[in-house]
Amino acid sequence: MARDPNRPVYPCEGRLVSIHDLLAIFLRPEFLVGDVPRVSDLHLRIGATVRLRLDGDLVPLEGGAPLTRPVFEDLVHPLLSDAQIRRLGATPPDDIDAAYDWTERAVSFRINAFVDRDGPACVIRVLPRAVPPPQRIGFPEERIWRDITEAHQGLVIITGITGSGKSTTIASLLQHINRTRPVRMITLEDPIEYVLADDRALISQRQVGVHVESFASGLRSALREDPDIIFVGEMRDRETAGLALTAAETGHLVVSTLHTRDARGALPRIVDLFPSERFKELCSQLSFSLAWVIGQKLVTRADGGGRAVAMEVMRNNTAIANLIRTGAWQQLQSMIETQTKDGMYSLERHLLELVRRGVISRDEAIRHANDPSIAQRL
Protein backbone atom coordinates (compact mmCIF):
# COMPACT_ATOMS: atom_id res chain seq x y z
CA MET A 1 0.00 0.00 0.00
CA ALA A 2 1.30 3.49 -0.90
CA ARG A 3 2.47 5.58 2.00
CA ASP A 4 -0.19 8.24 2.61
CA PRO A 5 0.32 10.98 5.24
CA ASN A 6 -3.43 11.66 5.21
CA ARG A 7 -4.49 8.09 5.98
CA PRO A 8 -6.21 7.93 9.42
CA VAL A 9 -4.71 5.07 11.44
CA TYR A 10 -4.19 6.21 15.04
CA PRO A 11 -7.02 6.45 17.62
CA CYS A 12 -6.95 9.87 19.28
CA GLU A 13 -9.58 12.27 20.65
CA GLY A 14 -12.37 9.84 19.81
CA ARG A 15 -11.45 9.26 16.15
CA LEU A 16 -8.77 7.87 13.88
CA VAL A 17 -6.14 10.42 12.84
CA SER A 18 -3.34 10.57 10.28
CA ILE A 19 0.22 11.77 10.71
CA HIS A 20 -0.85 15.06 9.11
CA ASP A 21 -3.57 15.36 11.77
CA LEU A 22 -0.93 14.86 14.45
CA LEU A 23 1.40 17.39 12.86
CA ALA A 24 -1.45 19.88 12.66
CA ILE A 25 -1.53 19.94 16.47
CA PHE A 26 1.60 22.12 16.34
CA LEU A 27 -0.46 24.75 14.49
CA ARG A 28 -3.58 24.83 16.66
CA PRO A 29 -4.39 28.38 17.82
CA GLU A 30 -4.44 27.34 21.49
CA PHE A 31 -0.88 26.05 21.10
CA LEU A 32 0.52 29.20 19.47
CA VAL A 33 1.92 32.39 20.96
CA GLY A 34 1.76 34.72 17.99
CA ASP A 35 3.33 32.53 15.33
CA VAL A 36 5.54 30.61 17.79
CA PRO A 37 4.39 27.04 18.64
CA ARG A 38 4.09 26.10 22.32
CA VAL A 39 4.38 22.44 21.27
CA SER A 40 7.98 21.76 20.25
CA ASP A 41 8.09 17.98 19.73
CA LEU A 42 5.95 14.95 18.97
CA HIS A 43 7.15 11.64 20.47
CA LEU A 44 6.17 8.28 18.96
CA ARG A 45 7.32 4.96 20.41
CA ILE A 46 5.95 1.46 20.04
CA GLY A 47 4.07 0.42 23.18
CA ALA A 48 3.51 4.00 24.37
CA THR A 49 0.87 6.66 23.77
CA VAL A 50 1.89 9.49 21.45
CA ARG A 51 3.11 12.42 23.54
CA LEU A 52 3.61 16.15 22.97
CA ARG A 53 6.25 18.37 24.53
CA LEU A 54 4.09 21.31 25.56
CA ASP A 55 5.89 24.23 27.22
CA GLY A 56 8.71 21.86 28.09
CA ASP A 57 6.59 19.06 29.61
CA LEU A 58 5.67 15.73 28.01
CA VAL A 59 1.88 15.41 27.72
CA PRO A 60 0.05 12.29 26.38
CA LEU A 61 -2.55 12.86 23.69
CA GLU A 62 -6.09 12.70 24.98
CA GLY A 63 -7.67 9.37 24.08
CA GLY A 64 -4.45 8.09 22.54
CA ALA A 65 -3.63 4.40 22.51
CA PRO A 66 -0.25 2.65 22.76
CA LEU A 67 1.35 2.49 19.33
CA THR A 68 1.68 -0.84 17.55
CA ARG A 69 4.39 -1.44 14.98
CA PRO A 70 2.00 -1.39 11.96
CA VAL A 71 0.44 1.88 13.12
CA PHE A 72 3.87 3.39 13.81
CA GLU A 73 4.99 2.52 10.29
CA ASP A 74 1.78 3.92 8.77
CA LEU A 75 2.40 7.19 10.62
CA VAL A 76 6.16 7.63 10.21
CA HIS A 77 7.06 6.01 6.90
CA PRO A 78 5.22 8.64 4.79
CA LEU A 79 7.69 11.19 6.18
CA LEU A 80 10.81 9.21 5.18
CA SER A 81 12.43 8.20 1.91
CA ASP A 82 12.74 4.56 0.81
CA ALA A 83 16.46 4.64 1.60
CA GLN A 84 15.84 5.99 5.10
CA ILE A 85 13.22 3.31 5.79
CA ARG A 86 15.68 0.60 4.71
CA ARG A 87 18.39 2.04 6.98
CA LEU A 88 16.01 2.13 9.94
CA GLY A 89 15.10 -1.52 9.33
CA ALA A 90 18.67 -2.72 8.77
CA THR A 91 20.64 -4.96 11.13
CA PRO A 92 21.99 -3.15 13.02
CA PRO A 93 19.67 -0.20 12.36
CA ASP A 94 20.83 3.32 11.61
CA ASP A 95 19.50 6.40 13.36
CA ILE A 96 17.78 8.63 10.83
CA ASP A 97 17.94 12.43 10.72
CA ALA A 98 15.51 13.83 8.19
CA ALA A 99 13.45 16.87 7.33
CA TYR A 100 9.82 16.94 6.19
CA ASP A 101 8.25 19.89 4.39
CA TRP A 102 4.45 20.03 4.60
CA THR A 103 4.03 22.36 1.67
CA GLU A 104 0.25 22.73 1.97
CA ARG A 105 0.62 24.20 5.46
CA ALA A 106 3.95 25.94 4.75
CA VAL A 107 5.63 24.33 7.74
CA SER A 108 8.68 22.08 8.12
CA PHE A 109 9.71 19.45 10.64
CA ARG A 110 12.93 17.84 11.79
CA ILE A 111 12.73 14.09 12.30
CA ASN A 112 14.94 11.71 14.26
CA ALA A 113 13.97 8.04 13.97
CA PHE A 114 15.78 5.30 15.87
CA VAL A 115 15.30 1.83 17.37
CA ASP A 116 15.10 0.96 21.06
CA ARG A 117 14.34 -2.35 22.82
CA ASP A 118 10.63 -2.09 21.96
CA GLY A 119 11.21 -1.35 18.28
CA PRO A 120 11.35 1.82 16.18
CA ALA A 121 10.70 5.22 17.75
CA CYS A 122 10.60 8.76 16.43
CA VAL A 123 10.79 12.36 17.60
CA ILE A 124 9.39 15.06 15.31
CA ARG A 125 10.26 18.70 15.97
CA VAL A 126 8.44 21.62 14.39
CA LEU A 127 10.50 24.34 12.76
CA PRO A 128 8.97 27.82 12.93
CA ARG A 129 7.71 29.04 9.58
CA ALA A 130 9.64 32.29 9.79
CA VAL A 131 13.03 33.07 11.26
CA PRO A 132 12.50 35.49 14.18
CA PRO A 133 14.65 38.63 14.23
CA PRO A 134 17.34 38.85 16.92
CA GLN A 135 15.25 41.44 18.77
CA ARG A 136 12.69 38.70 19.50
CA ILE A 137 15.09 35.94 20.52
CA GLY A 138 15.60 37.23 24.06
CA PHE A 139 19.22 38.37 24.23
CA PRO A 140 19.91 40.17 27.52
CA GLU A 141 21.24 43.20 25.64
CA GLU A 142 20.96 44.34 22.03
CA ARG A 143 24.69 45.00 21.76
CA ILE A 144 25.40 41.27 22.16
CA TRP A 145 23.69 40.17 18.97
CA ARG A 146 24.78 43.29 17.14
CA ASP A 147 28.45 42.66 17.96
CA ILE A 148 28.16 39.03 16.86
CA THR A 149 26.46 39.82 13.55
CA GLU A 150 28.96 42.58 12.77
CA ALA A 151 32.01 40.40 13.50
CA HIS A 152 34.29 39.39 10.64
CA GLN A 153 36.21 36.55 12.26
CA GLY A 154 36.33 34.33 15.31
CA LEU A 155 34.44 31.36 16.70
CA VAL A 156 30.92 31.84 18.08
CA ILE A 157 29.54 28.87 20.05
CA ILE A 158 25.87 28.50 20.96
CA THR A 159 25.51 25.84 23.62
CA GLY A 160 22.75 24.25 25.65
CA ILE A 161 20.88 21.00 26.08
CA THR A 162 18.80 19.48 23.29
CA GLY A 163 15.65 21.52 22.71
CA SER A 164 17.01 24.76 24.17
CA GLY A 165 16.47 26.80 21.01
CA LYS A 166 20.03 26.84 19.69
CA SER A 167 18.98 26.37 16.05
CA THR A 168 16.51 29.25 16.19
CA THR A 169 19.07 31.59 17.75
CA ILE A 170 21.65 30.77 15.09
CA ALA A 171 19.15 31.08 12.24
CA SER A 172 18.15 34.50 13.56
CA LEU A 173 21.78 35.70 13.66
CA LEU A 174 22.53 34.32 10.18
CA GLN A 175 19.36 35.82 8.71
CA HIS A 176 20.25 39.25 10.13
CA ILE A 177 23.70 38.98 8.53
CA ASN A 178 22.04 37.88 5.30
CA ARG A 179 19.91 41.02 5.27
CA THR A 180 22.65 43.47 6.20
CA ARG A 181 26.02 42.30 4.83
CA PRO A 182 27.23 41.35 1.31
CA VAL A 183 29.07 38.18 2.35
CA ARG A 184 29.51 34.57 1.26
CA MET A 185 27.88 32.20 3.75
CA ILE A 186 28.14 28.41 3.80
CA THR A 187 26.14 26.26 6.22
CA LEU A 188 26.71 22.60 7.08
CA GLU A 189 23.61 21.15 8.73
CA ASP A 190 22.19 17.79 9.81
CA PRO A 191 19.48 18.28 8.57
CA ILE A 192 18.77 21.73 7.08
CA GLU A 193 16.22 23.30 9.41
CA TYR A 194 15.67 26.89 8.30
CA VAL A 195 15.84 27.73 4.61
CA LEU A 196 17.69 31.02 4.12
CA ALA A 197 17.05 32.73 0.79
CA ASP A 198 19.76 35.02 -0.60
CA ASP A 199 19.35 38.68 0.31
CA ARG A 200 22.54 40.73 0.51
CA ALA A 201 24.49 37.56 1.24
CA LEU A 202 25.18 34.63 -1.09
CA ILE A 203 24.25 31.46 0.81
CA SER A 204 24.96 27.78 0.18
CA GLN A 205 23.16 25.43 2.58
CA ARG A 206 24.52 21.86 2.60
CA GLN A 207 23.10 18.85 4.41
CA VAL A 208 25.28 16.12 5.91
CA GLY A 209 24.53 12.81 4.22
CA VAL A 210 22.99 14.52 1.18
CA HIS A 211 25.42 17.18 -0.06
CA VAL A 212 28.47 16.33 2.05
CA GLU A 213 29.65 13.14 3.75
CA SER A 214 30.27 14.68 7.18
CA PHE A 215 30.72 17.99 8.98
CA ALA A 216 34.48 17.59 8.70
CA SER A 217 34.49 16.90 4.94
CA GLY A 218 32.05 19.75 4.35
CA LEU A 219 34.21 22.10 6.39
CA ARG A 220 37.35 21.13 4.47
CA SER A 221 35.46 21.82 1.24
CA ALA A 222 34.03 25.11 2.54
CA LEU A 223 37.49 26.48 3.25
CA ARG A 224 38.22 26.24 -0.49
CA GLU A 225 34.99 28.05 -1.46
CA ASP A 226 35.87 31.63 -0.48
CA PRO A 227 33.54 31.85 2.55
CA ASP A 228 33.22 34.80 4.89
CA ILE A 229 30.93 33.00 7.32
CA ILE A 230 30.64 29.26 8.02
CA PHE A 231 27.95 27.64 10.14
CA VAL A 232 28.83 24.13 11.35
CA GLY A 233 25.80 22.38 12.82
CA GLU A 234 27.77 20.73 15.63
CA MET A 235 31.40 20.26 16.64
CA ARG A 236 30.91 16.64 17.49
CA ASP A 237 34.36 15.21 16.71
CA ARG A 238 38.05 16.10 16.84
CA GLU A 239 38.50 16.78 13.14
CA THR A 240 35.50 19.10 12.88
CA ALA A 241 36.55 21.04 15.99
CA GLY A 242 40.13 21.39 14.73
CA LEU A 243 39.02 22.66 11.32
CA ALA A 244 36.55 25.10 12.91
CA LEU A 245 39.29 26.55 15.13
CA THR A 246 41.64 26.88 12.17
CA ALA A 247 38.95 28.59 10.07
CA ALA A 248 38.22 31.05 12.90
CA GLU A 249 41.93 31.82 13.22
CA THR A 250 42.38 32.48 9.51
CA GLY A 251 39.86 35.28 9.04
CA HIS A 252 36.46 33.57 8.96
CA LEU A 253 33.45 33.97 11.23
CA VAL A 254 32.56 30.43 12.33
CA VAL A 255 29.33 29.66 14.18
CA SER A 256 28.69 26.26 15.74
CA THR A 257 26.89 24.46 18.56
CA LEU A 258 27.77 22.21 21.48
CA HIS A 259 25.71 20.35 24.05
CA THR A 260 26.79 21.61 27.48
CA ARG A 261 24.83 22.88 30.47
CA ASP A 262 26.52 26.30 30.56
CA ALA A 263 28.85 28.58 28.61
CA ARG A 264 32.04 27.79 30.54
CA GLY A 265 31.55 24.06 29.94
CA ALA A 266 31.97 24.55 26.18
CA LEU A 267 35.73 25.14 26.35
CA PRO A 268 36.84 21.99 28.20
CA ARG A 269 34.42 20.04 25.99
CA ILE A 270 36.37 21.16 22.92
CA VAL A 271 39.79 20.60 24.48
CA ASP A 272 38.78 17.13 25.70
CA LEU A 273 38.17 16.04 22.10
CA PHE A 274 41.94 16.06 21.59
CA PRO A 275 44.79 14.03 23.12
CA SER A 276 45.97 15.29 26.52
CA GLU A 277 49.43 16.14 25.18
CA ARG A 278 47.83 18.84 23.01
CA PHE A 279 46.20 20.58 25.99
CA LYS A 280 48.42 23.68 26.01
CA GLU A 281 48.31 24.01 22.23
CA LEU A 282 44.48 23.84 22.16
CA CYS A 283 44.12 26.31 25.04
CA SER A 284 46.38 28.76 23.22
CA GLN A 285 44.47 28.30 19.96
CA LEU A 286 41.12 28.80 21.69
CA SER A 287 42.32 31.95 23.43
CA PHE A 288 42.97 33.54 20.02
CA SER A 289 40.12 32.12 17.93
CA LEU A 290 37.16 32.22 20.34
CA ALA A 291 34.87 35.25 20.14
CA TRP A 292 31.64 34.45 22.04
CA VAL A 293 30.00 31.58 23.89
CA ILE A 294 26.24 31.83 24.41
CA GLY A 295 24.66 29.27 26.72
CA GLN A 296 20.89 29.18 26.73
CA LYS A 297 17.89 27.51 28.32
CA LEU A 298 14.16 27.76 27.64
CA VAL A 299 12.14 28.62 30.74
CA THR A 300 8.36 28.66 31.19
CA ARG A 301 6.71 32.07 31.16
CA ALA A 302 4.76 33.12 34.23
CA ASP A 303 1.64 33.86 32.16
CA GLY A 304 1.60 30.37 30.62
CA GLY A 305 2.21 31.80 27.17
CA GLY A 306 5.04 29.53 26.08
CA ARG A 307 8.71 29.80 27.00
CA ALA A 308 11.37 32.50 27.18
CA VAL A 309 15.13 32.27 26.64
CA ALA A 310 17.51 32.63 29.56
CA MET A 311 21.10 33.16 28.46
CA GLU A 312 24.63 33.03 29.80
CA VAL A 313 27.00 35.16 27.76
CA MET A 314 30.79 34.90 27.73
CA ARG A 315 32.87 37.20 25.53
CA ASN A 316 36.53 36.53 24.92
CA ASN A 317 38.12 39.71 26.23
CA THR A 318 41.68 39.97 27.56
CA ALA A 319 40.82 38.59 31.00
CA ILE A 320 38.92 35.60 29.61
CA ALA A 321 41.68 34.90 27.06
CA ASN A 322 44.27 34.72 29.85
CA LEU A 323 42.17 32.13 31.71
CA ILE A 324 41.61 30.09 28.55
CA ARG A 325 45.32 30.13 27.72
CA THR A 326 46.16 28.58 31.08
CA GLY A 327 43.17 26.23 31.16
CA ALA A 328 41.81 27.84 34.34
CA TRP A 329 38.23 26.77 33.64
CA GLN A 330 37.16 27.05 37.28
CA GLN A 331 37.75 30.82 37.23
CA LEU A 332 35.65 31.53 34.14
CA GLN A 333 32.37 31.77 36.05
CA SER A 334 33.55 34.54 38.37
CA MET A 335 34.93 36.42 35.37
CA ILE A 336 31.56 36.18 33.58
CA GLU A 337 29.87 37.59 36.69
CA THR A 338 32.24 40.55 37.04
CA GLN A 339 33.02 41.58 33.43
CA THR A 340 29.54 43.00 32.83
CA LYS A 341 30.78 46.12 31.01
CA ASP A 342 31.79 43.89 28.08
CA GLY A 343 28.28 42.50 27.73
CA MET A 344 28.83 39.35 29.79
CA TYR A 345 25.92 37.81 31.63
CA SER A 346 25.77 34.94 34.07
CA LEU A 347 22.69 32.75 33.72
CA GLU A 348 21.62 33.74 37.23
CA ARG A 349 21.80 37.45 36.38
CA HIS A 350 19.56 36.99 33.37
CA LEU A 351 17.12 34.81 35.34
CA LEU A 352 16.91 37.50 38.02
CA GLU A 353 16.13 40.12 35.39
CA LEU A 354 13.39 37.93 33.91
CA VAL A 355 11.84 37.51 37.37
CA ARG A 356 11.96 41.25 38.09
CA ARG A 357 10.27 41.97 34.74
CA GLY A 358 7.53 39.45 35.55
CA VAL A 359 8.44 37.20 32.60
CA ILE A 360 9.07 34.10 34.74
CA SER A 361 8.28 33.07 38.29
CA ARG A 362 10.70 32.88 41.20
CA ASP A 363 10.34 29.09 41.33
CA GLU A 364 11.13 28.79 37.62
CA ALA A 365 14.32 30.81 38.08
CA ILE A 366 15.43 28.58 40.95
CA ARG A 367 14.64 25.44 38.93
CA HIS A 368 16.84 26.46 36.00
CA ALA A 369 19.70 28.23 37.78
CA ASN A 370 23.14 26.60 37.84
CA ASP A 371 23.90 28.27 41.17
CA PRO A 372 21.47 27.25 43.98
CA SER A 373 22.29 30.44 45.91
CA ILE A 374 20.10 32.39 43.47
CA ALA A 375 17.21 31.76 45.90
CA GLN A 376 18.85 34.15 48.38
CA ARG A 377 18.91 36.93 45.76
CA LEU A 378 15.23 36.71 44.78
Task: List descriptors.
2 domains, six-stranded antiparallel beta sheet, globular, seven-stranded mixed beta sheet, alpha/beta, Rossmann fold, 378 residues
CATH architecture of the largest domain: 3-Layer(aba) Sandwich
Q: Give the fraction of residues assigned to helices.
A: 25-40%
Give the class from helix and strand content and strand pairing: alpha/beta
How many domains? The number is 2
User: What are the low-pLDDT stretches, counting only 5+ consecutive residues below 50?
Assistant: none
- Cα-to-Cα separation, first versus last residue: 60 Å
Q: What's the average pLDDT?
A: 93
Strand ordering within the main sheet = 13-12-14-15-11-16-17
Question: What overall form do the CA principal axes indicate?
Answer: globular
Strand tally, please?
17
Please name the CATH topology of the largest domain.
Answer: Rossmann fold
What sequence of helices (H) and strands (E) makes up the elements?
Answer: EEHEEEEEHHEEEHEHEEHEHEHHEEHHHH
Please report which band the strand proportion falls in: under 5%, 5-15%, 15-25%, 25-35%, 35-45% or over 45%: 25-35%
SS field, number of helical segments: 13
For the record, the CATH class of the largest domain is Alpha Beta
Using only CA atoms, what is the Rg?
22 Å
The CATH homology group name of the largest domain: P-loop containing nucleotide triphosphate hydrolases
Describe the biggest sheet? 7 strands, mixed
